[in-house]
Design brief:
Number of helices: 15
Domain Glycosyltransferase subfamily 4-like N-terminal: 21-168
Pfam families: Glyco_trans_1_4, Glyco_trans_4_4
CATH class of the largest domain: Alpha Beta
Order of helices and strands: EHHEHEHEHEHHEHEEHEHEHEHEEHHH
Protein name: Glycosyltransferase involved in cell wall bisynthesis
GO molecular function, one term: glycosyltransferase activity
CATH architecture of the largest domain: 3-Layer(aba) Sandwich
Strand order of the largest sheet: 3-2-1-4-5-6-7
Keywords: Transferase
Mean pLDDT: 92
Number of domains: 2
Helix content: 40-55%
Length: 378
């Protein structure tokens, strides 16, 4: 049995994204401690019900504040010295960087970094001095931190290649590719497709998710197929690449799409849809796509890192180039006019979710890649 500390940048993600991993660790007989910014009561209750201790820390998910980040680092080091874990697992950029460095300072025997995506620092968005500065800083911090990690896990081969080409990984670093965080295929159960073309995008309101392209393609598709409907779900975001709010306001005013805000449970939105769309510029493995696939939706996404792994073009969905509005509109039109194709691709999506992205299987692959023995699975 090992004592494991899981470090997150958002407390709710311990349940929403890493719940199956935590449960798999517990099923394998390990002791689990969670560390993240302050949690809400449902998250604390979920952890307490499984005897997982929770340590709150001060961590700002976005922004570069040396004093804030130094405080986060020392809080993590103190937590590790108190808990004395055998292994630290950290995911998302700041937990990976500061968690790995703090674990090395605290002499934690094994340190596993999970790269869930490259985010604002690496995404090919609007060039700016700020983006370049963040990119340079992130590369330096990643290189320093990952040189002290025993295992580095990626969610797609493109991200691994990007780190290798940037010289971030030390020579001989032990790396592995895992299928994201997986999806609970029982919770996200298949639901019959809506009979009419209903397009859904679930994403934080940042430009790099391709929301502007979705809106523009929706305008074209609505002209061609007036019976089509377009829906957007997701929270506003403080990310420097946040979507220009005027684009969304104009689309709502013009009746192009319906904006539902952030939803605690996205299943009703997926159930009401017949096609899922994610025109993102880059992902680790897009969780929203996996959820839509598990519920039997055909997927339109970009031929971009992380996204292309979830779709076999022409089988369970369609791939389009990044930022290609006309090609995106053509793909949306193709599915809008062909209900039989939507059904066929939706069934293929469900099959892929079961065979490649089942949460318990992905969790055990992560445990194995971090050098632990996973529990047997049914």
């Amino acid at each position: 049995m090992a004592r494991i500390a899981v470090v997150a940048g958002l407390a709710s993600s311990l349940v929403n994204f890493r719940g199956p991993l935590i449960e798999a660790l517990l099923d394998a007989g390990h002791e689990v401690h969670a560390i993240a910014p302050p949690a809400d009561q449902p998250t604390l209750g979920w952890l307490a019900a499984r005897n997982v201790t929770f340590t709150p820390i001060d961590l700002a998910r976005s922004g570069l504040s040396p004093s804030q980040d130094l405080r986060t680092f020392w809080q993590l080091a103190g937590a590790f010295q108190r808990l004395k874990p055998n292994l630290v697992m950290a995911y998302t950029i700041k937990p990976v960087i500061y968690g790995t460095l703090a674990a090395a300072l605290a002499r934690v025997p094994r340190r596993c970094a999970i790269i869930t995506g490259l985010g604002y620092a690496f995404t090919d968005g609007q060039p700016s001095m700020k983006r370049r500065a963040v990119n340079v800083t992130a590369r330096l911090l990643y290189r320093f931190a990952l040189g002290r990690a025993h295992n580095v896990l990626f969610q797609n081969p493109d991200d691994l290649a990007a780190f290798q080409q940037a010289g971030i990984l030390r020579h001989g670093a032990r790396t592995a590719i895992v299928n994201g965080s997986g999806v609970d295929t029982d919770y996200f159960a298949p639901v019959p497709l809506a009979p009419t073309p209903s397009f859904l995008l679930i994403a934080r309101l940042v430009a790099d998710k391709g929301i502007a392209e979705f809106i523009a393609a929706a305008r074209i598709t609505a002209t061609r197929h007036p019976e089509s409907r377009f829906h957007l779900v997701g929270p506003r975001d403080p990310n420097p690449a946040a979507l220009d709010p005027r684009l969304l306001e104009d689309a709502i005013r013009d009746g192009v799409l319906t904006y539902h805000g952030e939803l605690a449970d996205v299943r009703p939105a997926i159930a009401a849809s017949s096609i899922y769309v994610l025109p993102s510029y880059r992902e680790g493995t897009p969780r929203s796509v996996l959820e839509a696939m598990a519920m039997g939706r055909p997927v339109i996404t970009t031929d971009a890192p992380g996204c292309r792994e979830t779709v076999r073009d022409g089988w369970n969905g369609l791939l389009v180039p990044i930022k290609a509005i006309n090609e995106l509109a053509d793909a949306m039109s193709k599915l809008a006019i062909d209900a039989a194709l939507r059904e066929k691709m939706g069934a293929a999506s469900r099959n892929m979710a079961l065979t490649k992205y089942r949460a318990v299987d992905v969790a055990n692959s992560i445990i194995d890649a971090c050098g632990l023995t996973p529990a047997s699975t049914p």
